[in-house]
Amino acid sequence: MATMLTIDQWAGKLSATKTIGTMTHWKRLEKAFMLEATDLTPVAPELDYWQMNYAGYTFPEIYKDDAKMTDACIRTWADLRADAIWMYVDLGHEFDPMISPEKRGEHFILRGPRDYVMYKPVATTLEEATRLFQEKVWEKYGWGRAGTDPGGFVSHCRQLLDFQRKMGDAVPIIVGSASPSNHAESTVEVQRFLKWMVTQPKQKIHDYLRLVLEERLGSLDGYRQFAAERGCAFFCEWGGARTWGPKELAEFGEYDEIWMEKAKRAFRYPFWHICGQNLPAAIEWCAKTAQVYAVQYDMPYRPTGMTQTEFWEWAAKKFAGRKCAMNGPTTQQCLHSTPDELRALVRKYVAITTKHTTAVIMPGCELSAYTPVENVKALIESARTDSAQSDMRQS
User: Fold this and answer.
1) Diameter of the chain by CA atoms?
2) What angle is formed at CA 119 by the lines to CA 115 and CA 124, rounded to 5 degrees?
3) Predicted pLDDT at 2
4) Contact assessment for residue 343 and residue 378, using Cβ atoms and an 8 Å cutoff
5) What is the pLDDT of residues 97-118, one digit of tens each?
6) Alpha carbons 96 and 64: distance in angstroms, whole number
7) Which of 26, 58, 191, 227 is a Cys-bridge partner for 113, taking CB atoms 3.0 to 4.6 Å apart?
């Protein structure tokens, strides 16, 4: 493994890096978000976990070392030149504030060197989950890895934004946060939250979501200070409600919308991340909201009866004149396909999507840590080939 570099060392080493195409990475992504023409198709796969392994670090090694997290992110970008750098984040960053310090070690499971950090739910009943938010336990427990503790989210974010600034804002840093619905379901695990949608009185669900919304709105004040005010513009909103149907969206979607509205006032270019089994209704909802500029959507298209390419076009039509579409090969395709197969999928996605709206190559979720390096390189490089651009111009 190469020697770890400081932010100043990285900036000095990379300050003379040549621009790819005629635009900076930042300008290319910004133009796509504003539904304007770009010189090349923006490509920004979610590499948060993958970057750690690429740089030669293990998950147990970086778990409490934010300097190594940052080094891995910059090292990966320097080699591959995607159009954005995703922060590293795991569920320890989200849930340390909900767990007493002496019990945090019981909730997060560090497995093999390339295996994701697993976690146990913070609460297992609706009453217990509600009580955590009523009592605002984070005020008692402190922020842990969500703050500036070793391996801390805030420390890692500040380091990357310092790099962004030292590089003249040529490459954007993507920071993300869980939406109210995401935070509500992840706190207890998705399957429990889904069950409660059926078994619990709606009023209890509303009471719980209102408390989660209050906490999420408060967290945005922190994000404004340590991220937005330090130059972060591209903000990923991790959408939840992965198993909600249209009725649930209509009943409970307002909490995410309220949070999104505040996030838009803090960040210039918020975008929505949505995965799960309710994509048709969720995508229609995302297309209509005025609170985001782009949507990173996942691909469980088979329940719709559409093929992958039909689903791409269906989504692009929904976003036409409204949103930038962020997709491409699925995370599973990135893991299991050959580089040539991925290149063909990228060209096809660009050709289909740009008939209706702007496109960013961004699979619907984070890439597996086991994704072959040659596949990630193919995903990024194929967005910048003449064939991909020819397909876009012809469309």
Assistant:
1) 60
2) 155
3) 72
4) yes
5) 999 999 998 999 988 888 888 8
6) 13
7) 58
Tokens 């004149």: give the residue: 321
End-to-end CA distance of the chain: 44
Write phi, then psi, for 325 (nearest 5 degrees). -95, 130
Report the C-alpha dihedral over residues 276, 280, 285, 288, rounded to 10 degrees.
140
Interatomic CA distance for residues 288 and 322, integer angstroms: 8
- Contact present, 343 and 307 (Cβ < 8 Å): no
Structure tokens at 304: 């719709």
Spatial distance between the Cα atoms of 243 and 247, rounded to a whole number of angstroms: 11
Pairing of strands 269-274, 234-238: parallel
SS3 per residue for the chain = CCCCCCHHHHHHHHCCCCCCCCCCHHHHHHHHHCCCCCCCCCECCCCHHHHHHHCCCCHHHHCCCHHHHHHHHHHHHHHHCCCCEECCCCHHHHHHHHCCHHHHHHHEECCCCCCCCEECCCCCCHHHHHHHHHCCCHHHHCCHHHCCCCCCHHHHHHHHHHHHHHCCCCCCEEEEEECHHHHHHHHHCHHHHHHHHHHCCHHHHHHHHHHHHHHHHHHHHHHHHHCHHHCCCEEEEECCCCCCCHHHHHHHCHHHHHHHHHHHHHCCEEEEEECCCCHHHHHHHHHHCCCCCEEEECCCCHHHCCCHHHHHHHHHHHHCCCCEEEECCCHHHHHHCCHHHHHHHHHHHHHHHCCCCCEEECCCCCCCCCCCHHHHHHHHHHCCCHHHHHHHHHC
Using the predicted structure, report yes or no on whether residue 391 has a pLDDT greater than 60: no
Which residues are within 8 A (CB) of 153 and not within 5 positions of it... i.e. 6 or more apart?
87, 89, 93, 145, 146, 147
Q: How many CB atoms lie within 10 A of CB 13?
A: 12
Residue 300: pLDDT over 70: no
Structure tokens at 108: 């997060």
- Structural domains in the chain? 22-394 (3.20.20.210)
